[in-house]
Amino acid sequence: MSPHPSTTKTYASRAELHSNPTAKRLLGIMERKQSNLCVSVDVTTAEEVLEVVRRVGKSVCMVKTHCDIISDFSKAFVDEITRLSDEMDFIIFEDRKFADIGNTVTLQYASGSHTIASWSHLTNAHPLPGPGIISGLASVGVPLGRALLLLAEMSSKDNLATGHYTREAVRMAREAGPEFVVGFIAMSRVDQEGAKEGEDFLVMTPGVGLHSAGDKMGQQYRTPREVVYDSGCDVIIVGRGIYGIKGGEEKVKEEAERYRKEGWAAYEERLGRK
Ligand code: S5P
């Protein structure tokens, strides 16, 4: 099979193909910072999240949060992570994994104690409920310039997002158009089949780790090179492999740089630059 067209283009040239402001900004950051690394900051207090972000901020194109695990989530936290995102030049991705009917996700996205749409540039949704989930989220997100990923595949062992389900996720994204849906959470180039001229989806991939093959709860890890070079994905998402590294604060910073360099080298290799 010939390589997917998006995998032969630079991140900078792909920015031109996107009308969504968050996708454009992200691809610009990736090129500027030479980083396709997203750090998943899955720690449970606001100060711990901010500490990790301050450590890794220079190395990343994006920071991923789970706001519902932060015990003291507040407006002050939102203000500070937003300030860091401007200062250190990264996108904020709230990994909310919306999965309900359009009306409910609209409320979950805009309201409640987290008001996700007000601060998170990018979020994601399971395609399970059908296209109404996209129109619901888009009604809140589009006026704010936000973007959405659909979970087309997952990293965990024996998950059900395979085959027909994955293909339907891609079809839903194509039908929605590029205004709001800018890509997928996936393990591979799920948009390979039936790729349209001028189309460009961002494939973001969790389950990345250099030290372990997985955890006791079904997570499965691959290396940055396997993800970016072998599978043609665009962004590596690393959690415990970075914030969980033993050896103190400096070590977290060093580890983020290590993943950034590996991810970037795999991208340059796929462009044939080395
Ligand atoms: O299929 C998935 C989708 C996601 S977004 N598998 C995942 O692991 N994730 C998320 O990526 C997960 O919720 C967690 O926040 C992160 C992986 O963390 P790690 O510590 O295993 O690297």
UniProtKB/TrEMBL annotation:
Superkingdom of origin organism: Eukaryota
Primary enzyme class? lyase
**SUPFAM superfamilies in the record, alphabetically?**
Ribulose-phoshate binding barrel
Domain (Orotidine 5'-phosphate decarboxylase): residue spans on this chain:
36-255
Check the record and name the InterPro entries matching this protein: Aldolase_TIM, OMPdecase, OMPdecase_AS, OMPdeCOase_dom, RibuloseP-bd_barrel
What GO MF annotations does this protein's record show?
A: orotate phosphoribosyltransferase activity; orotidine-5'-phosphate decarboxylase activity
Give the pathway listed in the UniProt entry for this protein: Pyrimidine metabolism; UMP biosynthesis via de novo pathway; UMP from orotate: step 2/2
Q: Does the keyword Lyase apply?
A: yes
Catalysed transformations (reactions): orotidine 5'-phosphate + H(+) = UMP + CO2
Biological processes, Gene Ontology terms: 'de novo' pyrimidine nucleobase biosynthetic process; 'de novo' UMP biosynthetic process
Which Pfam families does the entry mention?
OMPdecase (PF00215)
The residues that hold substrate are D42, K64, S155, Q219, G239, R240
| Family as reported in the entry's similarity comment | Belongs to the OMP decarboxylase family.
Q: What is this protein called?
A: Orotidine 5'-phosphate decarboxylase
